[in-house]
Amino acid sequence: DSGVTQTPKHLITATGQRVTLRCSPRSGDLSVYWYQQSLDQGLQFLIQYYNGEERAKGNILERFSAQQFPDLHSELNLSSLELGDSALYFCASSAPGEQFFGPGTRLTVL
Amino acid sequence: DQQVKQNSPSLSVQEGRISILNCDYTNSMFDYFLWYKKYPAEGPTFLISISSIKDKNEDGRFTVFLNKSAKHLSLHIVPSQPGDSAVYFCAASRSYNTDKLIFGTGTRLQVFP
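C-alpha cells for the assembled complex are given below, as produced in the milestone run.
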C-alpha cells in the first residue's frame, strides 16, 4: 500500500460526459502528479500541483483540468469525453527521490 | 517524441537466471533515473533508482547500471523469481526532487519455472 488513494476505481461513462477523479496523497506529501496510461503504453505526465498551486504541465488536453485543495487532495476533471480518453489515470505524491502511485482509476468511455 | 525508450516489449527468463531489462534516453538534461514494477490492476511500485553521478546502484537482487555516454541504463535481476513477473517501467527525471517523471513504454517480464 503506497498510502496514495484514488477514487473511484472504475468509471464507465458515455462520450460527451464529464467526470471527476479524486486523489489523496500520502500524509505530509505536498505534491500531487497526474498521469495517464493508455493501452499498455507508458505513463504520460499530465499535470503537477504543489501545495495548492500548479507547478508543471505536460500534454494535458484543454478539456482536462485539475486542482489541489487546502487539505492537499486533488481532483482531475475530464469533460466532453471522447472514446480516446479511455485509459488508466494514476495520481502520485512524492518524497525526495521517489514518487508513490495510487492504484489508478480505469476510465471507460462508451 | 519518445524521450525514454524501452525497445523490448517483452522478455521471458527461466527462474534462477538473470533478467536484463534495457532502457535508452535522449534528453541529456535527465539527472535521475528510476525503475518501477507494475502488476495488473495496481499502480506502479518503486524498485530502484540511480543518480547521474553514479554508474551502478545495487539493492538486493536488483542492480541498475547507468552509461551516461551511451544514454543507456539497464536493470539486472539476479536470480529471477516467478514473483518478478510483471511490467517494468524505466523513468527519468531532471531532478531528484519533486519533478515529473518521463516513462518508457514498459517491458513485460515473464519468469517461468
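The first strand of chain B starts at residue 4 and ends at 5. Chain B has a mean pLDDT of 95. Further analysis is deferred to the final report.
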